[in-house]
Amino acid sequence: MDSYVEVWSAAGVERAVLAGERLTLGRSRRNDITIDDAQASRLHAVIELLGGAWCVRDVSSRNGTYVNGGRIVQQTSLRSGDEIRIGRTRLVLRATEADTDVEATAAQKPPPRLTHRERDTLIALYLPVFSTDTFTEAATPREIAQSLWITEAAVRHHLANLYDKFGIDGTGEKRRTQLANEALRRGAITLADVRAAHEAREQRAAGYD
Which of 8, 16, 31, 164 has most Cβ atoms within 10 angstroms of its Cβ? Predict the structure, then answer.
């Protein structure tokens, strides 16, 4: 049986199959799982499969995300039967044993040592979180270059180093998204860092108007 999430709300119970490796949750209809709850943010949280285990992380929501009664402040591994609360909405994970291998992610590696520019590049990858309703892909090299006031060649150099340090294989846009998620999962950056960078960029833009 496929893994799924039971969504308990005032309207009743619905089942959302966990298709793919990443699903967004929030009030916006553009999310994979829509939370029809006034206390939910437009993009509230993300459920994703990492290292064989389903995990949930809050995406700087206004009212927070809770797992088994406790508010989460970082990415949190889930077991089948765990309860996620978003506002008044209750979500219960129903996953197969193969998808709840929490031990595989519990002993995660610490983040690698980064240069100042590499860290700035990681933060810039996540800036679309605060620019759109949903985070579907990381920022492009051109967007990162414009944000950091450096050349695209420099950005690609930093990205190549980061792929190597975080052990990210593959090519294309998916690779940048994997890097962004891995950096957040291992604590190299936080969503608070991303929010601060976004606010600073908005202030700079306002100063030019």
Answer: 31
Cα–Cα distance between 127 and 52 in angstroms, integer?
27
Q: Is 203 exposed, middle or buried (0-12, 13-18, 19+ CB in 10 A)?
A: exposed
Cα distance between residue 122 and residue 138, in whole Å: 10
Instruction: In whole angstroms, give the CA distance from residue 175 to residue 193.
Output: 21
- Weakly modelled stretches of the chain, pLDDT under 70: 1, 97-109, 129-137, 207-209
| Phi/psi of residue 167, nearest 5 degrees | 65, 40
pTM higher than 0.90, yes or no?
A: no
Tokens standing for residue 100: 């709840």
**124 class by beta-carbon count within 10 Å (0-12 exposed, 13-18 middle, 19+ buried):** buried
Cα 119 from chain centre: 17
Which pLDDT tens digit goes with each residue over 78-101? 989 999 999 999 999 998 755 554
Instruction: Give CA–CA dist 97/87, Å, rounded.
Output: 28
